Amino acid sequence: MGEKVLVTGGTGYIGSHTVVELQNAGFKAVIADNLSNSRIEVVDSIAKITGRKPEFEKVDLSSAEECKQLFEKHPGIGSIIHFAAYKSVGESVDKPLEYYHNNINSLINILNNMHRLGIRHMVFSSSCTVYGQPDQLPVTEETPRKPAQSPYGNTKAICEDIIRDFCKAQADYSCIALRYFNPIGAHPSALIGELPLGVPNNLVPFITQTAAGIRKELSIFGDDYNTPDGTAIRDYINVVDLSKAHVVAIKRLIDNKQKNNYEYFNIGTGTGLSVMELVQTFIKVTGVKLPYKIAPRRPGDIEKIWADTSLSNKELGWKAEKSTEETLLSAWNWEKHFRGI
Q1: Is 64 helix (H, G, I), strand (E, B) or coil?
Q2: In a domain, 175, yes or no
Q3: Which residues span the domain enclosing 170?
Q4: Residues 44-74 pLDDT 10s
Q5: What is the DSSP string of 210-240?
Q6: Assembly and interactions (predicted)?
Q7: Beta-carbon neighbour count of residue 198 at 10 Å?
Q8: Catalytic residue positions?
Q9: For labelling, which of 17, 73, 226, 272 has a CA lying 20 to 30 Å from the CA of 110?
C-alpha cells in the first residue's frame, strides 16, 4: 500500500475523480468533505471503480477544532490534496463573506495541522481565475496575476499567496498549486461525474440536464463578447486528465523532484473553445436536440482565456489526452446512467 493521502473535498467533482486515480496508482485515500455540494454515495461509486473503498469523514474544515480532530483520527497522512472550497463565481459575488470564510479558513486550518504534525507535501486546487482577463493569450505561468473579477477568484489568489508565504517560512515543506482551466466530462465508467446540488452553475452539467429534460432550456450568458461568435471562450479539459495531473504532482513532491518548494502549473488543453462551439459539439456527438436561449452576461465572468501548458508538459511530464468529443460523450453517458435513461 502506498502513501496515505488526505483528499479534502474528495466526494466533489474533481476530488472524486482524483481519488480514483490515486487509488489506481497505489495510494491510500482519506476523504474529508462536508457534503455541501456532493453526495455520500460517491464513496461507493469510487469503490466500484477501483475495488477499494476510501476512508471518509464528514467534516467542516473551516472549523479549526473539526479540522484538528480529523488529523487526530487519521494518523499517518503523508500528503494532502486540497480541493475543498465553495466554487461558484456568480454565487461568490452575492455571498462574498461566505466564500472568504470557508475557502481561506479551511486552508489555514490545514496548513496549521500540516505544520503541527510534520506533513510536508500539499497539492492545492487553484484556478485560472487568478489571471483575471489577461492582456495576452494564451496565459503562461509568467502571465501576471490580475485583480480577480469575483470573490471566488480572489480566494484562490489569496490562498496561493498564503501557501507561498508558508513555504517561504518552512523550507522543508513543499507545495504545488495547479491552476486549472475548465474541467468537464466524467469517468468512462459513468459511475461518477459532475452532479451539483440544485441548479448547475457550470456549463456542461446544465447542457446534459437540459438534454435529459431536467431543465427547460440552456442559458448562454452573453453573445456580445469580442470573440468570433460572440460567446465566451474557455479551455475545457477532461476531468480524468486533470485528475491525473494531481497524482503526478504528488509523486513529484514525494520524489523531491520540484525545482522550488512552492511551484504552480497551468493545467489545461492549450486550446480555447467558445460556449457555442461546445454546445454545437455536444449536439453533434450525441445527436440530441438542445433548446437554448441567449441570456445577459453574468457578473464575474471573463471574456476569453486559455492556457499555455508547455511548462506542465515539460516539468510534470503530463499532458491532456482526451478529445472534446470523447469528453462530452462521457458527460452525457454519466447523465444518462445517473437518471436511468
Answers
A1: helix
A2: yes
A3: 4-184+237-267
A4: 999 999 999 999 999 999 999 999 999 999 9
A5: HHTTSSS-EEEE-S-SSSTTSS-EE-EEEHH
A6: Homodimer.
A7: 6
A8: 152
A9: 17
